[in-house]
Specification:
The complex is a heterodimer of chains A (112) and B (112). Chain A is mainly beta. Chain A is 0% helix and 59% strand. In chain A, the strands form two sheets. In chain A, strands 2, 4, 5, 9, 10 and 11 form a six-stranded mixed beta sheet that branches. Chain A has a five-stranded antiparallel beta sheet with strand order 1-3-8-7-6, with no helix packed on it. In chain A, a hairpin with a 5-residue loop joins strand 4 and strand 5. Chain B is mostly beta strands. In chain B, the strands form two sheets. In chain B, strands 2, 4, 5, 6, 9, 10 and 11 form a seven-stranded mixed beta sheet that branches. In chain B, strands 1-3-8-7 form a four-stranded antiparallel beta sheet, with no helix packed on it. Classes of the chains: A mainly beta (112), B mainly beta (112).
């Protein structure tokens, strides 16, 4: 059974800091890994998708890496802004490519 | 290109009642998945529909059922509602394993 863990559970940083969110998964036989952002009480916004054959993806100030063999992914956020405050969720696609298994998220607060 | 739309946005039901939630998939997507997200938790996979048939199911009882229509829209039905069914229900569409998942804004269900 695939299990996904995200560390830390919560993070508070001053504006402008670079930060790293961590995601680990127990079964390395994944199809892809997707990072999402969730604002309070809202749906999920896709940030980055990394296919299993890829090592990293970048979008603007965001960079996500994937190491399948060690079961780890990191989301790097450069020059954090208050608007980045949200919960960040990591999800891996397994089970024949028909389901996502999510971590419990990292709640990020970026302070002025 | 329209995204994933869900209705209603909020719903209050009494224990024992039945509820139907609706989802319109993103244009071009042929697969719809449903997830339940309890407060402070990551989303949990309920089931997925592809070509109007169930294509994978999570650990949810049979009183959770669904449909997919020829236009790829979908319904989630829950019978005999329990207090623990109170959660955010998220619909996601995809193109059968390609390009990741696009989520809707969710339906907040409260069972009293």
């Amino acid at each position: 059974k695939q299990e996904v863990t995200q560390i830390p559970a919560a993070l508070s940083v001053p504006e402008g800091e670079n930060l790293v969110l961590n995601c680990s998964f127990t079964d390395s036989a994944i199809y892809n890994l997707q990072w999402f952002r969730q604002d309070p009480g809202k749906g999920l916004t896709s940030l980055l998708l990394i296919q299993s054959s890829q090592r990293e993806q970048t979008s603007g100030r965001l960079n996500a890496s994937l190491d399948k063999s060690s079961g780890r992914s990191t989301l790097y956020i450069a020059a954090s802004q208050p608007g980045d405050s949200a919960t960040y969720l990591c999800a891996v696609e397994t089970g024949g490519g028909n389901k996502l298994t999510f971590g419990t998220g990292t709640q990020l607060k970026v302070e002025l | 290109e329209t995204g994933v739309t869900q209705s209603p946005t909020h719903l209050i039901k009494t224990r024992g009642q039945q509820v139907t939630l609706r989802c319109s998939s993103q244009s071009g997507h042929n697969t719809v998945s449903w997830y339940q997200q309890a407060l402070g938790q990551g989303p949990q996979f309920i089931f997925q529909y592809y070509r109007e048939e169930e294509n994978g199911r999570g650990n949810f009882p049979p009183r959770f059922s669904g449909l997919q229509f020829p236009n790829y829209s979908s319904e989630l039905n829950v019978n005999a509602l329990e207090l623990d069914d109170s959660a955010l229900y998220l619909c996601a569409s995809s193109l059968r394993g390609l390009y990741g998942y696009t989520f809707g804004s969710g339906t907040r269900l409260t069972v009293v």
